[in-house]
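FIELD: query
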Amino acid sequence: MRAKEVFILAAALATGVLEAEDLVNVPSSKKSFHLFLLMGQSNMSGGVGLAAGDTQPVPHVLKMRFAKEGEEPEWIPGAHPLHPRRPNKKNRFGPGLSFAKAYLDDNPGVVVGLVPMAWGGRSIEQLGKGSGIYSDAIRHAKAAMQAGALKGVLWHQGESDTVEQTRTDAYEKRLHRLIEDVRKDLGSPQLPFIVGNLAEFYGTGKDHKAPDRVARIARIKEILRSLPGKVAHTGFVESTGCSPAAQAKVHFDRKSCVLMGKRYAKVYAAMSANP
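FIELD: result
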């Protein structure tokens, strides 16, 4: 654990925010360590800045810290930022921990392990098999699976594929292929894969409201919404009622990130009840 992470952990203990007994280790049984791979772009990694308290660890949640090729990934306490590799180097607040908290409410007695591998500003082609980001995601997921049971993938992406028509036209095929590749490479042909919709407000900001751009945004939303009817063991999370973080109207605000995380957990629970 790095010095900064130790300091954050010590501060949380000193202020009484976190009790010592809440600092769980990696469970000895894989059955009680439930893993989720987080993939996509900035609305998964987070598009709004951190606030006071966000860096405090969440009880019974661990995250896998990113490791370069040749290094050994390790588990550290689950706290924001989950995805520290954003291109602009800023630490952000996303839906991952909200999901983990809601999942724990539905599954008491387990530990959640998050494998955060989203990267802002990337198209699905840049995230798919053959890319370095995809290779990193699979490498970290496999490392995580040595200690726990992979329960699903949470995906939130598509904004970058509305930039030009050729990307939009190829999106559905690429999404289906990515799901197939992830399942094959992780040896889990029925691995639950849940996608979140683009924000309802996306397409109303000044930089994205040209008619052709709005049409492409609508098409990506349609592709995401129709996924469960076309690919088995997939789920869809709606983004209605969410609000933007800034005037650009691309990213969810804090309240909406929390809401989306809860919705991912609700969809996962429904899929588990009706496999």
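FIELD: remark
The domain at 23-273 is CATH 3.40.50.1110 (Rossmann fold).
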